[in-house]
Each structure stands twice: as C-alpha cells, then as structure tokens.
Amino acid sequence: MDDPDAVDRADAERRDAADPLAGFRDRFATPDGERYMDGNSLGLAPAAAEASVERVVDEWRDLAIRGWEAADPDWFSYAEQLSDRLAPLVGAREGEVAVANSTTVNVHTLVGSFLDQLPGTPAGSDPAGEAPAVVVNELDFPTDHYAVRAQLRQRGIDPEGKLAVVESRDGRTVRAADVEATLDERDDAGIVFMPSVLYRSGQLLDVERIAAAAHEAGALAGFDCAHSVGVVDHDLHGAGVDFAVWCSYKYLNAGPGATAGLYVHERHHDVTPALAGWWGHEKATQFEMRGEYTPAADAGRWQVGTPPLLSTAPLSGALDVLEEAGVDRVRRKSVALTDYLIDLVDERLPDAFAVGTPRDPDRRGGHVAVEHPDGYRLSEALRDRGVVVDFRPPNVVRVCPSPLYTRFVDVWDVVETVRKVVETDAHLDYETRGGGVT
User: Fold this and answer.
1) Fewer C-beta within 10 Å: the chain N or C terminus?
2) Are 409 and 57 in contact (CB under 8 A)?
C-alpha cells in the first residue's frame, strides 16, 4: 500500500474519492445490500445495455421483419458494426474481429479450421502418426479441452497422443518457459492454444512471448481471452496472435449468454471455416441463396447462423460504457483494486489464507484467487452475508473487483466480512461441498 499504516476504511474512502472512474458505478444495477465480486463470471447490468435490448424489442414489435433493413442500426449489419467497435479494444485491425456464436462454438470452428490447414490432417490413414498436435495446459478451462479433443477426433486424430498438455509446476500458474520447452520437445506441434488468463488463479500469461514461441516452432498461436477482454488492454495483432475467442458476459458486461467474439489475423482470411453457415457468406450475395458457399472476405466468415439479436443487442450499450471509460483506464483501476485486495488479505486475514494469483500486476488478470482450506464453505457463508463470490476446486474463492462498478470500500468491506466469518467459525456451519452453480 502507499502508506502501510493507513489500513482502515477511511483510506478506502480516500481512494474512492480520487478514482476517475467512480462515476461509472451509477450506470450499473448494483444489487441492494450486497458486495458483488463475481464480475469475472457475470458482469452486472449497465443501464445502457438494458436500453439496447429494449430498443431491439421495440423494433421487433413495430417493424417485424422490416427490422433487418429499417431498424437503426439495421439488424442485417448489426454484428459487423459491433465487430468494428470491439476491434480497437483487443488491438485488432479492421475486419479481424467478428461478434458471433458462443465461446465454445468459436473454439470448435477456429481450432477445426486451422487444423484443416496443417500437414497431416486428416490423419485417418496416416500410419506414421504425422498428424499435428495441439499444445494446451493442464489448468485450462475444461471446455477448451473438450472442444479441442472433439476436433482432433473428427479428423481421425487420437487426442491421447496429439493433445500435448503443458504441466503446471505449482498447480496455480503456467510458465512460458514450460510452453517453450514443450515446443522444443515435440516436432509435431501445429497449434498452441492457451488462455490469456487462467480462470482459477487469475494468472495473465505472456501472450506475445507464447505467440512468438509457437511461430518459432512452426505452429499457430490461439488464445481463449474470456477472462481478459474488457479488463486487459490487449494488442492481439501486434503480438502476432493467429486467432482468439472470448465471451461478452464477464468484463464486457453484455449479460448472460451474450453473443461471443472472435479474432482472426488478417493473414488467415483466406482460410475456409470448419463450420460453414449462411451468416458467414459474403454479404453482397447472401440473399441470392446460392448453393455454393462463398465466405466473407474477413473474420466475418466464421459467423455461423443468424445472430441472436436479443443476445447481441446488450453488447452495444455495454460498449458505450467501456468505450467512454477507456480500456486503458479500466486496466489501471483493475490493477489498483487487485493490489489493494492482495494487501488486505496479507494484512487482515489469518495465516490459513493465501493468495494464489501472481503478485506482479503484469502477470495478473482482473480477479484474485483467495485460497483457504475450507474455500467452499467460506464462499457459501459469504454469499449468505451479502458477499457474492464464487468457488473453484480445490480451495479457491475467486474475488473480482470489477473496475467499472466496484469501489475500494467494497473491497475493504469484503475482506472484513471474510475476517469476521473465520474468526467466529461461521463457515463451519456449511456443508463441505454442494451442487449447483458456484
């Protein structure tokens, strides 16, 4: 902290008074009587996103099918307009971003598309085993492995031999050096697919270094940026990333199930999508209903079906807020909030607690993994006391002070609530593990 002696709530209030983004909190629906610290799973609702949905509903009622051309903005080009707005937030050039599908669908279509470009694919009749491998890591969010394995199987490639898993040394983080070592050990690497931020620990990986290592090994570099877009100031094109995916319901605050996004470097805009659909067709002739697929000339070719307007519309209003705030300022506040949270865990909580997130802000995303042997019971006790967090096995309580609506006093109050719960053993009243959404 700036002043180690200023460990009180008044210090948090002073930080809030100096916060240039403080006013943005009023643009979100913040639950009464709660400290919401789960924006890394679902961002809160900005009023502008609600207004965007209401506008599209009104257009649907008033215009019906004419909304595809007569709405403002028109529905036909809605996804493309949002894609253009998202591009600068992730460091992409014009045409490199598409608002489309869900995150897992985008993993399927992009991994599949690029596997099809590599020598040895399909490998069903390849007795020499020259099929390409996909390099992942053991701390990935499970859906990424599910999708990659499925795409390998569909091409006659055995995932047991061709899913190269980089191991973690500490169960929390993945070292870029270990990714590089895996690439040095294998001469069959075709794709490196990593998260930008590990979903459990919050480690921010060195995207540029990993992309460079992949290219040095003759492989493509892809990233799952679900836990970073909207809170990390990416430069995907500048880093040489080949492709990336992300969701819109975490730090972009576009609502549950909001339409996802993808990025494909312009050098790959001649690749044929593995999942071809009519909405990825070139727009000029899309409604000529030709029998032959003519893909769009940019990342829009990885759209599959008709964009779900009611799940896409909230992104428009949410981007209004993020664009005004500026992702660079959002990142600075995120670092300040997570620094503050880590300091309070160190100074205010018992020795049973540990911080599982890198302390170097250049290696940290937007949330902090607070570790405790009774993490699940603690998370349940906190929810019953108005602190909304989530739990990830085996012992991680994820705490996310999302910058656009979280105050420093909220962080202070959350840590104080944690301290009181463990001091009174209140968490021991809860079951050791339950079901449902955590």
Assistant:
1) N
2) no
**Is 66 a residue of the active site?**
no
250 an active-site residue?
Answer: yes
Q: In this predicted model, what pLDDT tens digit does every residue of 51-102 receive, in sequence order?
A: 999 999 999 999 999 999 999 999 999 999 999 999 999 999 999 999 999 9
Query: Which pLDDT tens digit goes with each residue over 350-375?
Result: 999 999 999 999 999 999 999 999 99
- Measured CA to CA, the distance from residue 7 to residue 415 in angstroms comes to 12
First to last CA, the chain: 31
Domains, the chain: 9-30+326-429 (3.90.1150.10), 52-322 (3.40.640.10)
Residue 190 tokens read as 């075709």
Q: How far apart are CA 387 and CA 370, in angstroms?
A: 14
pLDDT tens-digit readout, 249-277: 999 999 999 999 999 999 999 999 999 99
Measured between alpha carbons, how far is 423 from 196 in angstroms, rounded to an integer? 36
pTM (2 d.p.)? 0.95
Q: Would you say 183 and 214 are in contact if contact means Cβ atoms under 8 Å apart?
A: yes
The predicted pLDDT at position 358 comes to 98
Strand (E) or helix (H) holding 396: strand 396-399
Please count the other Cβ atoms lying within 10 Å of the Cβ belonging to residue 58.
12
Task: Copy the structure tokens of residue 432.
Answer: 């050791």
Which three-class secondary structure state does DSSP give residue 2?
coil
Catalytic residue selected from 398, 405, 408, 410: 398
Q: Is 249 a catalytic residue?
A: yes
Active-site option among 78, 114, 199, 249 = 249
Q: Is 398 a catalytic residue?
A: yes
Is 251 one of the annotated active-site residues of the chain? no
